[in-house]
Design goal:
Length: 154
């Protein structure tokens, strides 16, 4: 019954950030659910990036900016590195998100604090070639603030 365990984990993370639980949080909308096997949700505020979260028997999948499974952790990984998974989930939910797209197949997602310092970066490749001439950079605000006075870094 991993799904219920992961729902509890996400609610614990939200509570640690002084946020409402998933079912009472206005930034979170459930998109599909079968409590026995999976829960799918979208996390978004007005100026944040769209984050898709799927909690299932097989683990946790996070999609960012229409990139499915930008982060994917299986049961064994979560059991072995639970603190790291929690840390990355907190970074995803509380950081400015800078997305550099090079065409449709290549993205670099960087999570930054309010001082502009890189906290975590992830490169996503959807094919063999990128279009360096069509580079586009977008910066999104955090879904949830780490503190009350969080301001953009740029």
């Amino acid at each position: 019954m991993n799904t219920a365990k992961y729902v509890e984990l996400l609610n614990d993370i939200l509570e640690s950030m002084h946020q409402q639980s998933m079912d009472n949080n206005s930034a979170i909308s459930l998109s599909d659910m079968s409590m026995e096997s999976y829960v799918k949700m979208n996390v978004k505020t007005e100026n944040s990036v769209l984050i898709d979260i799927e909690l299932s028997e097989s683990g946790i999948d996070i999609g960012i900016d229409k990139s499915p499974e930008a982060f994917s952790w299986g049961v064994e990984h979560i059991d072995r590195d639970k603190k790291d998974v929690i840390s990355i989930l907190r970074i995803i939910l509380t950081s400015f998100v800078e997305i550099k797209s090079y065409g449709k197949k290549y993205k670099v997602i960087t999570f930054k604090n309010s001082d502009g310092e890189n906290l975590y970066s992830k490169m996503l490749l959807g094919g063999l070639f990128s279009n360096v001439l069509s580079r586009k950079t977008v910066v999104y605000e955090p879904v949830f603030s780490r503190n009350q006075k969080q301001t953009p870094y740029n």
